[in-house]
Amino acid sequence: MNAFSRLAAVVSLASLFPLAALAGEVEVLHWWTSGGEKRAADTLKKLVEEKGHTWKDFAVAGGGGEAAMTVLKTRAVSGNPPSAAQIKGPDIQEWGELGLLAELDEVADEGKWDTLLPKQVANVMKYDGHYVAVPVNVHRVNWLWINPEVFKKAGATPPTSLDEFFAAADKLKAAGFIPIAHGGQPWQDGTVFEDLVFSILGPLGYHKAFVEQDKATLTSDKMVEVFATLKKLRGYIDADAAGRDWNSATGLLIDGKAGMQLMGDWAKSEWSAAGKVAGKDYQCLPFPGTQGSFAYNIDSLAMFKLSDEDDRKAQNDLARTVMDPQFQQFFNQNKGSIPVRLDQDMSSFDTCAQQSMKDFKEAAAGDGLQPSLAHGMAASSYVQGAVFDVVTNFFNDPAADPKKAVQQLAAAIAAVQ
Ligand code: GAL
């Protein structure tokens, strides 16, 4: 075979396997491992595979993603990061500073991301003016989940204020139910704490505390009240809460053993996976005292620099897929979140998602839209870790003093600023 016919053979083989010729591999690190969230992650895997690429799943279990971030750091330090990783909020800037993230500007221009995304979201995805991450969804953290059947049996009323919340908890307790399904893990304690700050300090006070980390706000009487309320709330969780995963806590509601859960709307992924219907089998209420406000948690996939050309193409296809309206619909209907595109048709979404989208837009028009601290949106992971330490220690110590806790909070944050 001469050189020309060898080339012709290669060319014709390539035309026989066009997908294989363009196919690459994407390794994606995430922590979507609960039953419901896995269904959502699988929708992304399927769409990427349909484009001819290989999906290498890099799932690291552990709600809130702390374990996943530790594993990611180890992989990055050894010079072998995955193609994409679930990195969120201000952390994207830190990875960008290390020079490890790939630019997605070409895909973003072609997909008109700047026009499709809320500005606030687009800015978080950019490092030094360039897109380095693609947003997947918008989660709302300040939700209260309710099993209406349990409420009915206990004669309790869905609460709209903190007083009503504790009144409902008393009724549930008296009727023999677990009033509040909780998992004693630092990020879950932090999620509950954040809800109380949002409710008691309001969106502007919340902003001052967590985004500005203003000392006077962190040590204010209102913050003392937050810790005192957290202590009270502790009396309504069951003795087995320590270490429990968030999805097991949701399971207690689904099984009719508990009445309420304070959790972001990824909890809905479990209800959906169990075939339950929003507004009928379960109710989503803005956490009492935070009506009209929205604590956001945006999941995003940051892209790492790769040397293999085919893998780079696969990485770009992954980014394109994430912004695709069909993916935004399938994924978010399974995940419990709302789409990140402003132009998305919401008619096939359930009542909780529709309310979430409405509240998101309304909150964005005023001061009500605030970044979640417990989910890495408001501050660095160091500040987040400092808050978790103080809150979890307080939560686990029945003798802890709210007045001392606020001083510890301010000191712990100052130490990592
Ligand atoms: C959040 C993440 C969500 C969900 C949740 C529970 O931080 O943004 O997508 O996975 O943790 O693990």
Automatic annotation (TrEMBL):
Keywords: Signal, Transport. Part of a binding-protein-dependent transport system for a sugar. Belongs to the bacterial solute-binding protein 1 family. Residues 1-23 form the signal peptide. Gene3D superfamilies: Periplasmic binding protein-like II. Pfam families: SBP_bac_1. Coiled coil: none annotated. Its main location: periplasm. It is found in: Periplasm. This is Probable sugar-binding periplasmic protein.
